[in-house]
Design a protein that fits this description.
The complex is a heterotrimer.
Chain A: H1 3-15, H2 18-28, H3 33-38, H4 44-57, H5 62-75, E1 82-90, H6 99-113, E2 117-123, E3 128-135, E4 143-153, E5 158-162, H7 169-179, E6 182-192, H8 195-203, H9 217-221, H10 228-249, E7 259-266, H11 274-278, E8 283-290, H12 294-304, H13 313-322, E9 325-329, E10 338-340
Parallel strand pairs in A: 7-9, 9-10
Antiparallel strand pairs in A: 1-5, 1-6, 2-3, 3-4, 4-5, 7-8
Helix pairs in contact in A: 1-5, 2-5, 6-7, 10-12
Chain B: H1 4-7, H2 9-24, H3 28-69, H4 77-102, E1 107-110, E2 116-125, E3 128-138, E4 144-148, H5 156-162, H6 169-196, E5 201-204, E6 211-218, E7 223-230, E8 241-246, E9 260-263, H7 265-278
Helix pairs in contact in B: 3-4, 5-6
Chain C: H1 4-14, H2 41-46, H3 49-58, E1 73-75, H4 82-85, H5 88-94, E2 98-104, E3 107-108, H6 115-131, E4 145-152, E5 164-171, E6 186-191, H7 197-202, E7 207-208, E8 212-217, H8 219-233, E9 237-239, H9 244-256, E10 265-272, E11 278-285, H10 286-296, H11 300-306, E12 315-317, H12 318-336, E13 344-350, E14 353-356, E15 360-363, H13 369-383
Antiparallel strand pairs in C: 1-12, 2-8, 2-9, 2-15, 3-7, 4-5, 5-6, 6-8, 10-11, 10-13, 13-14, 14-15
Helix pairs in contact in C: 1-3, 6-8, 9-12, 9-13, 10-12
The chains are: A alpha+beta, B alpha+beta, C alpha+beta.
Chain lengths: 344, 290, 386
């Protein structure tokens, strides 16, 4: 085993939590039965030492180690910061793209753009295509310690990326656009540590609520007792708020988005404050909402009345547009990431 | 009532039910008389209705005639106004009918804010209801899809544009429904293959379920068969092209052909049938194929 | 002695600050240095700010002050060139470090002249604690600790304020003779800035009031220092949270400084009680925050007519603070239709400093630290037990 592979393996083994080590290695399936029996998984340190020895013994190459890393990352994707991108303007045949075609083309396009790059592509059981890129340049071999990961579902316009430096972004963009048969790609203004959440949000894989003609279960549950008149009215309001909250943010398990950021550059308007209202310049501020499950928190704000209904487009745009970064200005259409504030 | 607690609520209810039943069934004779009376009344009502209808038709005809002639003013004020009212109602009903025709088959309701409507498109495959998709559409100033749960691999916006949603929402909904139903059907087929034929290996598939590569072994001959189903028409749940590859020789009508052959869909079904007939003991009719 | 309490009230009520005061030479301990036999220790330190004010208002002598309440009006912070009064090295020790706040009841028989003795005593005390196995388990547990007391001269604002004391704990290096400056393992300071003069004057002889205690470093050492103070000066400590109102005061006081010193930004963190909890960080551009604040200040002329202040605009009223908060919340509501009043203000920060509701603060700019410390001194005095 060469030096870089050993370094990567050591780092990887340290990264995998002790509890997960056994199952991950089992899935990897590269150790012989005899080796498997020897490893003592109750001792983290010694098991790592043993693993290093076995991998050297089996003469594993970088290929095998990156395979292990990819498997671990695919199973534990919610680590780094993931950024969503959107492919735009599809070509006619983008919908009938095949995995093998995509694989070949992506690799060849990327290798044309940059020398010394190592690309590994693997399809996960949920139809997602996982791409691992280790970057090098004309003078250095690929650095496997800082790989870029890309997740893409063929036939959809969304791409999720982690560990990509600004320098490499145009290279990846071009290879992606060409191999997935689109014309362009843009940032989707959505990011988070939880890949599943941002994917579910964009792929609409969560339970959305739409108006129905059937009474909601809530009204049946709320059987009023003490003062039927008042209780009914309260229940009516409450139910209405809950319905609005659910229609805006969804129902059931909501995607675990952790934050949303708004850059506001709008006029300060207050009838009682003439000085500020007459001021020409916008009032500049940044607002960040954060929670372990932002959509759930916001939904509760609406259903409990802390946030008024109808829900402001600024908040409802998070699930509706699948975004969590907004630049808000008063004037109409602006650059792609901007969204004018509707004047009520 | 005293027995209530000892006998329980259900038995008490059944006692009450028997009581009401007996109250509802008075002696047969009077029932018969009542029935006849009611029938007579209903018939008389019907006669009145018909008379009114004839009257209306007559006046309508007269009205049309007068309108055709053009000059003859409607001097009989009362009758004409009555007619105009009727005509207005008629056109209103026609509009409603048209509206109903427009949304034909779709569950459509007003959204809570009243700015638009919410349309539901249900999907089904072989009589089994699958996912329901919803679209919230604002009506003013132009039709605009504001919210939906259609997955991103269905090109919703392209479909809306191509079918001219502004003027022909029904065409758009129909095409969308076709896409969604076809996708639901293909997805269901894939699910059924996985469930019912564990010996079949799904080598490849995608989110759109537009490509499906299956691998299975012909039991007696022990040859592996690779079957590639390509659904390039996304509005259908039948494949458009099929590749069948197998070790050594091809399972096809054309024995001289190369190991890999492209079939048209009909041939595909035929070849699948031939596989089925060959292996009916192991491969029970793979129903997903038709 | 029996009528002591009444006398006290009378004294501060009459508001004669120019009373005779004895000073010890060198550092100032603004109390009689003459030793007075204390009648009841426990009773004496319980004589708190609040009870004192309460008694006073019963006598109807301090109409403007009500017990249990922060001042409703305070002087606008002015840029102090504090480095002229306080040594730059000592100031540097107080800046850019996050301090955990506590209140301390008045210290009995504390002398600013005995810093050396206290250093020795505290070092010995910690060594004894460690010997007893009382978990002084920090990085340098092998070596022993060396505590040092020093007076930070010049942090006072009135003659009644006692000089600030700084305590540092270093580990005795196992390799003596190394010149490189040692980083303190633990540091803490006790201060009093603009302490209510009436209260300070009402204290019996031999009591020094340094109500604000700031500590930074291992919790174990903090507790050891607290225990030593309790034993030596018969005082007691308690956690000092920064209330919602105090944080709002800081928002206004700091924003008010922007005219003279760029605050960069005004950052407020709210927590909204939903499940899971929602945290809202609202960061306003410094200049814009100041312009809003300025637009909401009282009309200086109006104030002039009141005739109370010669210096127009030098006083900030709680109403102005509330209007400012309302303005900020209003702008937020207009965009998000979410009422920040439903949540609680947890943290405030600008380029001048940072304050958290759980009683932690950081001072980043020495120029305006006096205003911040004045507010915190007041909070500490209010927090003392009855």
């Amino acid at each position: 085993m060469d030096d870089p592979s050993q370094r990567l393996l050591r780092r990887l083994l340290r990264r995998i939590p002790a509890g997960n080590l056994k199952t991950t290695l089992e899935k990897w399936g590269r150790l012989t039965a005899a080796q498997w029996r020897t490893i003592d998984f109750t001792q983290t340190k010694s098991s790592i030492v043993q693993m290093l020895a076995f991998c050297a013994e089996n003469e594993f190459t970088m290929k095998h180690i990156t395979e292990l890393e990819m498997m671990y990352v695919i199973d534990n994707p919610n680590k780094g910061m993931w950024y969503a991108f959107q492919l735009i303007d599809p070509e006619a045949d983008s919908q009938s793209l095949e995995l093998t075609q995509f694989k070949e083309q992506f690799k060849s396009h990327l290798c044309e753009l940059v020398r010394n790059v190592s690309v590994k592509i693997k399809k996960h059981t949920d139809e997602a295509v996982w791409i691992r890129i280790a970057w090098g340049d004309s003078y250095s071999r690929p650095n496997h310690l800082k790989p870029t990961y890309i997740v893409h579902h063929l036939q959809t316009p969304y791409v999720f990326v982690t560990g990509l430096s600004p320098k490499q972004r145009p290279l990846v963009s071009q290879a992606l656009v060409l191999s997935s048969r689109y014309h362009a790609i843009k940032a989707a203004n959505l990011s988070g540590r939880n890949l599943t959440a941002i994917r579910d949000l964009l792929m609409k894989q969560y339970q959305q609520v739409f108006p129905t003609r059937f009474p909601s279960p809530l009204s049946e549950r709320n059987q009023s007792v003490s003062n039927p008149q008042i209780e009914r009215e309260h229940a009516g309001h409450k139910e209405n708020r809950l319905q609005m909250a659910s229609e805006t943010f969804g129902d059931g398990m909501l995607p675990q988005l952790q934050s949303s950021v708004y850059k506001l550059e709008t006029k300060f308007r207050d009838r009682a404050n003439q000085t500020m209202t007459e001021r020409e310049e916008p009032f500049k501020c940044v607002v960040k909402f954060a929670s372990t499950n932002l959509l759930e928190s916001l939904k509760l704000c609406v259903s409990s009345g802390i946030a008024s209904t109808p829900v402001t487009p600024l908040l409802s745009s998070i699930p509706l547009k699948g975004r969590n970064y907004f630049v808000i200005t008063d004037n109409g259409p602006a650059p792609s990431s901007q969204m004018p504030l509707s004047q009520n | 009532m005293e027995g209530l607690s000892s006998k329980g609520v259900l038995s008490h209810l059944s006692v009450l039910a028997v009581q009401t039943k007996s109250r509802r069934n008075p002696p047969q004779q009077s029932t018969r008389v009542k029935e006849l009376k009611a029938e007579a009344e209903a018939l008389m009502m019907r006669r009145e209705q018909l008379k009114a209808e004839i009257q209306t038709h007559k006046s309508l005809q007269r009205m049309r005639l007068s309108m055709d002639k053009g000059e003859e003013e409607m001097d009989e004020d009362s009758e004409n106004s009555q007619l105009l009212q009727l005509m207005a109602k008629h056109s209103q009903l026609k509009d409603l009918l048209y509206a109903h025709h427009l949304i034909g088959g779709y569950d459509i309701i007003k959204t809570s804010l009243g700015k638009g409507v919410c349309v539901s498109v249900t999907t089904a495959y072989e009589g089994v209801y699958l996912d329901t998709y919803n679209l919230e559409i604002d009506l003013k100033p132009v039709l605009r899809i504001t919210r939906h749960n259609v997955p991103p691999f269905i090109p919703l916006n392209e479909l809306a544009e191509q079918n001219n949603i502004q003027t022909n929402i029904k065409a758009f909904l129909d095409v969308l429904s076709q896409h969604l139903n076809a996708h639901a059907g293909r997805k269901q087929q894939l699910k059924l293959v996985k469930e019912r034929f564990p010996s079949v290996d799904v080598m490849e598939s995608n989110v759109l379920c537009s490509i499906l590569v299956l691998m299975f072994t012909v039991p007696r001959q022990k040859t592996a068969v690779l079957c590639t189903l390509n659904y390039s028409d996304h509005t259908r749940c039948l494949p458009t092209t099929v590749h069948i590859q197998c070790e050594g020789r091809t399972v096809s009508t054309d024995n001289q052909g190369p190991p890999s052959t492209v079939y048209n869909p009909r041939l595909c079904v035929m070849s699948m049938l031939s596989i089925r007939t060959l292996k009916h003991n192991k491969f029970k009719c793979p129903s997903f194929i038709y | 002695m029996g009528k002591r309490d009444v006398q006290i009230c009378f004294r501060f009520g009459s508001g004669t600050p120019d009373m005779e005061r004895h000073r010890s030479s060198g550092a100032r301990t603004p109390l009689n240095s003459a030793l007075v036999q204390r009648r009841s220790r426990s009773k004496s330190y319980r004589l708190s700010y609040r009870s004192c004010l309460g008694a006073a208002s019963r006598l109807g002598l301090t109409p403007a002050l009500t017990a249990r309440r922060l001042n409703t009006s305070r002087r606008a912070p002015k840029s102090h060139n504090i480095s002229e009064k306080v040594s730059v090295e000592q100031l540097a020790l107080l800046l850019k470090k996050e301090w955990k706040l506590s209140y301390v009841t008045p210290l009995y028989r504390f002398r600013h002249t005995q810093m050396r003795g206290y250093s020795r005593q505290l070092s010995a005390f910690i060594a004894a604690e460690k010997h007893q196995g009382l978990a002084v388990d920090v990085e340098a547990a092998q070596g022993s600790f060396r505590a040092s007391f020093s007076v930070i001269q010049g942090m006072t604002e009135t003659d009644d304020d006692a000089e600030t004391i700084l305590i540092q704990i270093h580990s005795k290096s196992s390799f003596p003779g190394q010149d490189e400056p040692q980083r303190a393992l633990w540091s803490g300071w006790l201060t009093c800035v603009y302490g209510n003069p009436e209260y300070l004057n009402s204290l019996p002889k031999d009591f020094t009031c340094l109500p604000l205690f700031c500590s930074s470093g291992s919790e174990v050492l903090t507790n050891a220092v607290k225990s030593w103070f309790q034993l030596t000066f018969d005082c007691c400590f308690g956690p000092l949270e920064i209330s919602h109102t105090s944080l709002q005061w800081l928002v206004a006081l700091w924003t008010n400084c922007h005219a003279e010193c760029n605050i960069q930004h005004l950052k407020m963190i709210w927590s909204v009680p939903v499940v899971p909890p929602l945290q809202i960080t609202y960061t306003v551009d410094g200049q814009d925050a100041w312009e809003l604040w300025n637009s909401l200040r009282r009309d200086p002329q109006e104030e002039g007519e009141g005739g109370k202040d010669e210096e127009a605009g030098s006083n900030i009223d709680i109403m102005e603070v509330e209007r400012f908060m309302q303005g900020l919340k209003g702008h937020f509501y207009r965009h998000f239709r979410l009422d920040l009043s439903a949540g609680s203000l947890k943290q405030v920060s600008t380029a001048l400093g940072l304050a958290k509701c759980n009683g932690r603060m950081k001072i980043s700019n020495s120029k305006y630290m006096i205003a911040t410390l004045t507010l915190l001194t007041e909070c500490a005095l209010l927090k003392m037990p009855m």
